[in-house]
Predict the 3D structure of the following.
Amino acid sequence: MYIDLVRIGKNYCVGKHKSRNAISNLSLSISENEIVTVLGQSGCGKSTLLKIIAGIEKPDAGQAYFRGQPITGIAMERGYIYQDYSLFPWLTVRQNIGFGLRNKNIPKHQKKVLIEEYLEKFGLKGAEQLYPRQLSGGMKQRTAIARSFCLKPDLLLLDEPFSALDMMNRHKLQDELLEILKGEKITYVMVTHDIEEAIYLSDRIIVMTPSPGAIQAIIPVSMPRPRTRTSSEFLTMREEIADMFYSKSI
Ligand SMILES: Nc1ncnc2c1ncn2[C@@H]1O[C@H](COP(=O)(O)OP(=O)(O)OP(=O)(O)O)[C@@H](O)[C@H]1O
């Protein structure tokens, strides 16, 4: 498979001789070009799971593989977007988007074309010269995602990218993202708390349980896109996942 997690375990040290078991015996495979969301209560290990795939955290047990090779650290081909956007406050939108390209060995002209492409695709034309403090939450998030797309990663890992946005902005960005993903060869793995968001975007939903983090269910979503949030199929799935989610996690 494209991503393989095999019997992953992860403990964090939380003081002298004390550790917290964040993830236990978790196995999961993800296909190339799949859109996967990871859903679960706060603290169930979603971010840890993403960081292990990104190579930011190392598992204590088991092994994570990307294209059949063990993941041993971070790599440009696996982009990771933090919850807090991590924009550089002293750089403009254009400079933030182009930041990762500095060390890429491609002609200057091509870098400019890429930056233009993603300014356009993420609706940031006209805001190129603004600094992060001058942006709305949605614009910050667009900038952070555009910066990652610009690097043309094979895999993009996003930790609750839309959580700070109001509903209207979140829906808008979800639609834009799906449109952009249609034209890219990219595998997309995203953490969310929002069941509706997971159903709207995903090919598959991974539901996690806490203490320690483990997989409760893997739910394929076969509804054709664009999906209607008010369709009976959508609402039924939302209810089923909510039942599963709350019955186990409380
Ligand atoms: N660096 C760390 N040091 C110690 N404990 C940690 C660390 N990172 C995470 N943990 C613990 O591991 C568990 C899983 O954390 P993680 O951030 O992966 O959960 P999450 O599901 O992403 O949570 P949230 O939805 O609130 O972001 C939690 O109990 C958390 O306190």
Q: What stands out?
A: The pocket of adenosine-5'-triphosphate is lined by residues 12, 14, 20, 22, 40, 42-48 (CB under 6 Å). The chain has a mean pLDDT of 92. The chain has two domains: 3-77+153-247, 89-152.
